[in-house]
Amino acid sequence: AQSVTQLDSQVPVFEEAPVELRCNYSSSVSVYLFWYVQYPNQGLQLLLKYLSGSTLVESINGFEAEFNKSQTSFHLRKPSVHISDTAEYFCAVSGWGATNKLIFGTGTLLAVQP
Amino acid sequence: EAGVTQSPTHLIKTRGQQATLRCSPISGHTSVYWYQQALGLGLQFLLWYDEGEERNRGNFPPRFSGRQFPNYSSELNVNALELEDSALYLCASSLRLENYGYTFGSGTRLTVV
User: Fold this and answer.
1) Which of A14, B8, B24, B31 is the most buried (most CB within 10 A)?
2) What CA–CA distance (Å, rounded) separates A86 from A99?
3) In a mutagenesis test of the A interface, which of B102, B106, B108 is the best target, namely the one with the most A β-carbons within 10 Å?
């Protein structure tokens, strides 16, 4: 079975500052890793994912995450945040294989202040 | 291409009543997943349907049930509603048995009073 830990429930940051949202996972098998974003009163949108290959994955809006197998982490980073990045961010993990479902962390609220 | 659609957007029920939530997956997607997002608890996996069959079930009581229809749309039923069932219920879909990332709908906000 897999599990995900997002230690920070809320991360306040000023606009144009860098940010890192932490995600650690636990699994006895190889995994796929995901970051989803949820804007107020909306569903979840896939931000980026790691399936295989390069351990550094990027999104179209400047976020990136690095898969670190030795530290079982998949932290999300952005070098300069905007007010519009304010949202809830969820890390998720799935074991390899078609029968595995996505397991989500409890989420981190990124609050960008002017 | 239409995304995952859920109805109704909001639902208010009285404790003890039954609630029915509906989900239409993206065209071509045969797997449908239901998650409960209660305040402060993140997303909890509820149910997974594929090709009309229940593939997996989360740690929820039997009064949470559902089904998938031949057109791959799905229904979530919650019987004997309790106050703590108040939550955002999210539906997601994917290609058959593919776990490379799901596409989510906007959810149904269920309020039990």
Assistant:
1) B31
2) 34
3) B102
Contact A49 B101 (CB under 8 A): yes
From CA B12, how far away is CA B9, in angstroms rounded? 10
Specify the CATH superfamily of domain B5-96.
Answer: Immunoglobulins (2.60.40.10)
Q: Report the relative pairing of strands A108-113 and A10-14 from DSSP bridges.
A: parallel
Find the chain A residues whose C-beta atoms sit closer than 8 A to any C-beta of B: 32, 34, 36, 42-46, 49, 51, 90, 94, 97-107
Decide if B42 and A105 are in contact by the 8 Å CB cutoff. yes
* C-alpha span between A112 and A82 (Å, rounded): 7
**B108 contacts on A by Cβ (under 8 Å):** none
Instruction: Let me know: does B64 contact B11? Beta carbons within 8 Å.
Output: no
Residue B63 C-alpha from the chain's centroid? 13
Q: Tell me the average pLDDT across B92-102.
A: 80
Query: Among candidates B31, B24, B23, B49, which has minimal Cα distance to B94?
Result: B31
Q: List pLDDT tens digits, range B19-56.
A: 999 999 999 999 999 999 998 788 999 999 998 999 98
Cα–Cα distance for residue pair B58/B44, rounded to 1 Å: 8
Q: Which two tokens stand for residue A82?
A: 């905007």
Q: What CATH code would you report for A3-113?
A: 2.60.40.10
Distances (CA, A) of B89 to A70, A105, A114, B59: 35, 16, 32, 15
Distance from CA of A30 to the nearest CA of B (A): 13
